[in-house]
Amino acid sequence: MKSKAIVLLIIFGMVFTAAAMAAEVPNKGDAAIKLDGGKKGHIDFPHRNHQDTLGDCNICHDIFPQKPGVIKDLKDQGKLKKKKIMNHCRGCHRNMAKEGAKTGPTSCGKCHVK
Ligand code: HEC
Ligand code: HEC
Ligand code: HEC
After folding, report:
1. How many A from CA of 19 to the centre of ligand 1?
2. pTM: predicted TM-score of the whole model, two decimal places
3. Is the CB of 60 under 6 A from ligand 2?
4. pLDDT value at position 4?
5. 94 lines ligand 3 (CB under 6 A)
6. Ligand 1 atom 5: residue of nearest CA
7. Average pLDDT estimate for 33-41
8. d(CA 88, CA 71)
């Protein structure tokens, strides 16, 4: 009898944990994302680092949805101008660098990797 109760308790605990995880943990996507950079070579984008430093998801996701490969897909469909996201990335790095803050790269070869 006692062991039956323990089994039930364990099952209940597992169901509860699964439900809590599904309800409360938002999908933050991959920690690091490899972005297509055309002929210039790909970009190793530290996604989690930006989420943690910037705080606001919409700084980027106002421009494109939270979906893997979406930037390339929208560009291929002609719905997003080439280098538009790049200018967004670079623009922020530039502005922060001007203010003397710690930020990301502004030169081509520091973002693009061949
Ligand atoms: C500095 C820009 C930036 C910020 C801020 C940002 N993201 Fe992203 N996110 C990206 C890029 C770039 C991609 C990749 C899009 C692609 O593959 O074309 C992406 C993709 C995603 C994806 C798709 C899955 C994946 O891993 O590719 C999810 C989910 C996501 N982001 C969630 C979030 C959440 C939640 C936040 C806030 C906590 C956030 N992002 C903040 C730039 C950003
Ligand atoms: C802060 C990072 C960053 C820097 C610095 C940067 N790029 Fe990019 N570049 C990107 C990203 C991200 C993309 C893909 C998204 C887009 O096209 O907006 C891209 C895309 C490109 C593309 C492909 C466009 C296409 O779709 O055909 C070319 C070409 C390019 N960059 C050239 C350059 C050159 C030249 C420089 C230096 C003057 C440069 N990039 C600096 C991040 C960067
Ligand atoms: C609103 C400002 C902002 C935007 C937009 C932004 N970044 Fe950054 N980026 C930062 C800051 C701040 C850091 C420095 C984070 C730290 O302290 O490690 C950084 C760092 C980086 C680094 C260097 C990471 C390292 O480990 O040295 C890369 C590469 C980078 N960003 C690429 C990108 C790309 C690609 C995009 C666009 C998809 C982008 N960033 C958009 C602010 C931004």
Report:
1. 24
2. 0.90
3. no
4. 78
5. no
6. 57
7. 97
8. 13
CA distance 71 to 38: 12
Ligand 3 contacts CB of residue 85 (under 6 A): yes
Which pLDDT belongs to residue 67? Answer: 97
For residue 29 and ligand 2, the question of a CB distance below 6 A is answered with: no
What angle is formed at CA 95 by the lines to CA 82 and CA 39, rounded to 5 degrees?
Answer: 25
41-45 LR contacts (CB < 8 Å, sep 24+):
41/112, 41/113, 41/114, 42/112, 42/113, 43/111, 43/112, 43/113, 44/113
pLDDT digits (tens, 9 = 90+) for 41-92: 999 999 999 999 999 999 999 999 999 999 999 999 999 999 999 999 999 9
CATH class of domain segment(s) 29-113: alpha beta
Q: What percentage of the chain carries pLDDT values higher than 90?
A: 76
